[in-house]
Design a protein that fits this description.
With 219 residues, this protein is of the alpha+beta class. It is built from eight helices and nine strands. It has two domains: 7-113, Trna Endonuclease, Chain: A, domain 1, CATH 3.40.1350; 136-218, Arc Repressor Mutant, subunit A, CATH 1.10.10.
Length: 219
């Protein structure tokens, strides 16, 4: 099986545009594909075998000529490919670029986004969660770019609960809450995401071996 090339995208893209009533020509100036229909602004398509910064740079540069700019790439394969493709479509929307995919096996062209101005919707719940985490986190325990090893406010609260149990032994969650100021102390110990706590009775918790070892390291 021969390796696909960018030229394999051209005939399907041209056929798609011609079906829409455009006159289409390839490699006009710096553009991969230019399509003209009546007195409308030209439609420009930049083609690559996959999403890349080069593709986006080229497409954004074409916006100096026309607001009607698309990128064309081969259709994705597999669930992971689809997830990546969707993220790239979202990025292109923010850049006001259109996106089409080409199924190389039969030349099927699908439009995933048209080029238009994009105003992202703000998420109040996400903003609230961000600000809550910022307010609850004590100090600045992380370095930017820590490869996923993040100290969260939840982790800090769990450490407070563990430190209290290390010092006082098995205790009711309500007492841990009042003593440490951790509002969700009982829930944190019950959920036990870090494997540090174990129940002894109704609402009473003690440290596991892992919890004691962690508290000793943090002492």
């Amino acid at each position: 099986m021969t390796k696909p090339s960018e030229t394999d995208l051209y005939d399907p893209v041209k056929a798609w545009l011609e079906d829409l009533g455009y006159e289409v020509k390839a490699e006009v100036g710096a553009a991969d594909v230019v399509a003209v229909r009546g007195d409308e602004v030209p439609l420009i398509v930049e083609m690559k075998l996959g999403f890349s910064l080069t593709l986006l740079h080229q497409a954004v540069a074409r916006q100096a000529i026309s607001d009607n700019v698309y990128v064309a790439v081969p259709r994705w394969t597999g669930k992971a490919g689809w997830r990546t493709f969707k993220r790239n479509v979202g990025l292109c929307k923010r850049l006001a670029l259109g996106v089409v995919s080409v199924r190389l096996s039969d030349g099927f062209v699908q439009v995933h986004a048209d080029p238009r101005a994009f105003k992202p919707r703000k998420s109040n719940p996400r903003r609230s969660a961000l600000m809550s985490e910022f307010a609850r986190r004590e100090g600045d325990p992380n370095l930017g770019g820590t490869n996923g090893k993040i100290v969260t406010a939840y982790l800090q609260d769990a450490q407070k609960c563990a430190a209290y149990l290390q010092e006082h032994g098995s205790t009711k969650g309500a007492i841990v809450k009042d003593a440490t100021g951790v509002v969700q102390a009982t829930r944190i110990m019950r959920d036990n995401h870090h494997g540090w706590f174990q129940p002894l009775g109704k609402g009473v918790y003690e440290l596991t071996d892992a919890g004691r070892a962690r508290s000793e390291r943090n002492a």
